[in-house]
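== Sequence, structure tokens ==
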Amino acid sequence: MKAERWDDWMVGELRALDAAGLTRRLRPMASADGRTVVTGGKLVLSAAGNGYLGLAHDPEVLAAARTALETSGASSQASRLVAGDHPLHHALEHECAELVGLPCALAAGSGYLANVGLLRVLGRDATILSDERNHASIVDGCRAAGARAVRRYRHGDAAEADRLLEETAREGGRALLVTESLFSVDGDLAPLAELGRSCAAHGALFVVDEAHGLGVAGATGRGGLEEAGRPGGADAVVGTLGKALGGYGAFVACSPELRALLVTRLRTTVYSTALPPAVLGGCLAAVRRLRRDPALVQRLQANARALRARLAAAGFRIPGEAWSPIVPVVLGDNRDTLAAAARLLEAGVLVAALRPPTVPEGTARLRLSVSAAHTAEDVETIAAAVIRCVPGRRGA
């Protein structure tokens, strides 16, 4: 039998993706203020990004990044264990650990790298419990971990998670439970208090991904654990620097013992060039700004409440927390979702069209997001465009 040519295989894969409405395409865009973007030569209002606090264009953040660039160059030029360990790494890690209420932290190149690397370290020969709607980075980390078993529990179902933890404890061996705090496509908060108590009762490690919770959830933006009344209430917290904090990279906050282990075994950091000084300087300024200015979080949450209330008044059923800036409009069909996103772009509003495998089959959606940089008029413009461009479809 003649082997299939690679070119033929690629063309076949692309045709299958296109037929299912699953083709992804890159769209160059640039933003000068965090609330608008230029794409296709057109200035539009952005309701698609994750820069929830508008810090990517904050003058203080830009000044800190510029200073680090000018004094330390454009690259760290090596992994941290070789020659890339900059004093700014340690200052940033200290601030991040204090932000989430844990003893120390270790920086990583991205949230994806942090989750995959962390689960490879912790999950080997252990049993991992994972929410069925956890982010792809957690899913891939579970696959790569070499775990004794990976058990998925129903989304947000603390009772099922507790039952699985009890079964795992009876079987013996190490166990950990990993969950997002604020889920990235549904905008809902995990039952963190209940999950934390179950982990403590059954001797399991509790790992929380605060990628979308930091700067968003809680009265001061310390994350979903703060919102749940349990700041510092996890054994390990993964936080990203490229969403609400407006920079790039991530960190794992944890105990001194786990950090020491990660310095040696976190392969996604050990074998990667360290974050550049400009990124470190900007992120450090952003974390400090968040810690001293909770009004940023309050402005963000007010914008989120306003958008959700406006859409609800128009008949849309929007899942998620009332304060969550992640606002999903579930349409179901892939092509309908793409068409709605195209109409919104034509109307001057950029939104994300999420389709499988990012979301479950049959739940394709528009993912709207607001930020503290949006004005009240911006929020009204976004809501009015959705109401006009998604007629007769009122979510799920």
